[in-house]
């Protein structure tokens, strides 16, 4: 719970809000027992597709933390990433990828669902770029 609270504070979310009963948290702990990353996810059934530009320099780069307007066409999904956070000095080391991979293999017993079936909730610009890289697609799922 303390790890999720720290991640929520770093992400600018209400750290005192109780997590939803259906959310699952994954924590990445480093060699010195410090928390390096946190993923909070939930099972979802559908999500909308969102086209993501390939770089921060494209037109939408001015859009920082605005709400998304997902398309009305829904796709099948299995996992919704409510929030993901990696401490700044540990970024670009594969921690976020490992956290989502753990969720993909643990959320549904005996089944690892495809990367493209992971949906993201209100990703930032960096979150959109990460999601596009993670799913190897310019179309990411949002919910």
**What is the alpha-carbon Rg in Å?**
15 Å
Counted by DSSP, the helix tally is: 3
Separation of the first and last Cα atoms: 24 Å
Widest β-sheet, arrangement of strands: 1-2-5-6-7-3-4
Assign an overall shape: globular
Reading the helices and strands in chain order gives HEEEEEHEHE
User: Which parts are unreliable, with pLDDT below 50 for 5 consecutive residues or more?
Assistant: 64-68
Helicity level: 10-25%
Strand proportion? 25-35%
How many E-type strands? 7
Largest sheet: 7 strands, mixed
Overall pLDDT confidence: 84
Structure class? alpha/beta
Summarize the structure.
The chain is 22% helix and 28% strand. With 143 residues, the protein is an alpha/beta fold.
Structure, described:
This protein is α/β, with parallel strands linked by helices and 143 residues long. The chain is built from three helices and seven strands, in the order H-E-E-E-E-E-H-E-H-E. It has helices at 2-10, 95-106, 125-135; strands spanning 23-29, 35-43, 46-51, 74-76, 79-86, 118-120, 139-142. Strand 1 (23-29) and strand 2 (35-43) form a beta hairpin. It is globular, with a radius of gyration of 15 Å. The chain starts with a helix and ends with a strand. Mean pLDDT is 84; it is low at 64-68.
């Amino acid at each position: 719970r303390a790890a999720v609270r720290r991640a929520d504070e770093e992400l600018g979310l209400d750290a005192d809000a109780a997590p939803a009963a259906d959310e699952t948290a994954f924590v990445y702990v480093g060699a010195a027992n410090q928390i390096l990353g946190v993923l909070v996810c939930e099972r979802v059934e559908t999500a909308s597709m969102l086209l993501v530009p390939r770089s921060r320099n494209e037109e939408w780069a001015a859009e920082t933390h605005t709400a998304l307007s997902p398309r009305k066409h829904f796709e099948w999904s299995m996992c919704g990433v409510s929030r993901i956070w990696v401490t700044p000095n540990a970024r670009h080391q594969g921690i976020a990828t490992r956290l989502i991979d753990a969720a993909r293999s643990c959320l549904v017993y005996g089944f690892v669902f495809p990367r493209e079936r992971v949906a993201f909730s209100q990703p930032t610009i960096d979150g959109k770029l990460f999601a596009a890289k993670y799913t190897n697609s310019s179309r990411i799922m949002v919910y």
